[in-house]
What we know:
The protein is mainly alpha-helical. It has 22 helices and 9 strands. Helices cover 57% and strands 5% of the residues.
Amino acid sequence: MNYRRDIDGLRAIAILPVIFFHAGFNNFDYGYLGVDIFFVISGFLITSFIVNDLKLEKFKVLNFFDRRARRILPGLVFIMIASIPPALVYMQPDDLENFGQSLFATSLFSNNILLYLTSGYWDIASEFKPLLHTWSLSVEEQYYVVFPFLMILIWKLKSFWLMFLLFLFLSIISFFYYYFGSFGNESIESRASFLLLFGRAWQILLGAIGALISLKVITKIDTVKKFYKEFICLLGISLILLSMFHSLIFELNQIYLPVLASIGTLLLLVFSNQNLIATALLRSKLFVWIGLISYSLYLWHQPIFAFARIRSFDEPSFVSMILLILFLIPLATLSFKLERFFKNPKNVNNRIFYSSLTVSLIIICSAGLTFHFSNGFYKNYNELTAPYLVEDKFYDNDGYIVDAFKFQDLEFSGNKKNLIIYGDSFARDFINMGRSNDYFKNYEFTIRPYNCFNKQNYTDEEKFNLIKEGDLIIISYRILHSEASKRCFKNKISYLEKNKIDFLVIGTKDFGYNINRPLKDKIYDFKAKPSEEILEFNDFLKNNVPNEKFIDLLSLISTEDGVPLFTDDNKLMSIDRAHLTYFGAKEVGKIIFSDIRLNDLN
Length: 602
């Protein structure tokens, strides 16, 4: 395959929005779609290279793996090793433990699986994860392991159309898996369709289909009039821009945005050439240069942004992020030169390359396992001398974590009053507040799957009827993002009032932007400023819940200077800025259960 400058320019179109998105710049809320562009490009290029080698009967799987390893691993290994010292120095235990897990998972090409099993890409602490972005590399690496064997098998059948139809069939199945899984918002199905290979395979295969089309009918494409090529490429660029910046004009369903970006990329890959005005910008020196260093930019941007945030009390300013990006450019350029050096076997032979790689990965995996099994060295901190919260878990009265499912789907015996708790993880926090202060003695309680996050619950009257069996209903959410979920919440409140069911809404809480620095530097008098979105949601609750039914937790725990992060005896109250440690549950519980409306729960 001949070198195409426009593909490097297309890489620039992909990487810049990703960087601006992770920097938190306004109007780049959909910049993460640059990763979708990379997937399509990868499918196109890898298929083109393999088919060309198969035609010449010189394709060897080991050679393919060697080229991929030399292209991807030197920079990736270097960034992981470089991230370990600042992580040790600056990260609080919970973040360090998670970082250790990411080190190990990334070394095994499976950070996407780790995110799927744990927090996901949109977790509230994701901006503090230096290796968050390696999930997409894991997807590509998993694809590299499977795809060459698939190509060899299909190639033996000596049928272009069979290969084309098989790719089309697999891409359709993958697309439907992505499409229907995406309706879950932050459900586990949604995480799977976003993070796992099969949910992304349709984009990679779309690029592969584009490569087959180009290789089979390239002469026919060359005969297409220039006017039509200009129009098609302009349409491709427009679809990419529309997917990323549609919100400036109108709103599109987020499910369809990757489709627009992927189809736009496919059109450019198939129809662009060196003479089109529409793609002249992609072939410009600036865009080609950015495209050439795009992999290095991708590797370095997230760790730099993450550690800058970890050392900040508040979210870094726009100017700070611009300066970091300017610093990123020469760093990525040097990294790119390092990658090119290792890419050439003449510079580093296989024995030296793979022995160095093995030693490096052993160091990385050892560090990762150490951070994981030591819980980020939390025992080194007197501020964390009892077990701290793991999401979806509860504390017993001695401060130890017990299984969450112990409290779910209980049948009421009728011997005590019935307490029903609805909400998200903040509802579990409420239980921890009570149990750590020896409440709920006179109540049996259960948690119902009654969340406003789920589309099927917005108007389901049968689920509303379940609450009639409760003597008291407690509702607690961290936040409700969408207008639909807020309408759902208001419908529930109206239903409770209409049926004269006793209920209380516990307000949201927040411990500021960052807890790494206050804990590491032992700033015990630190007062956090709640985030704007939490303040807005708290105002929403105030305006939509009757005063006598609303407990404004945020106001109760706030002082004039903000929300305390430590108790009076210097115990950390939250390890993730949102959920409570055992000490936080006990401290905040003392405050909230002093409210006369909760006295009966004793």
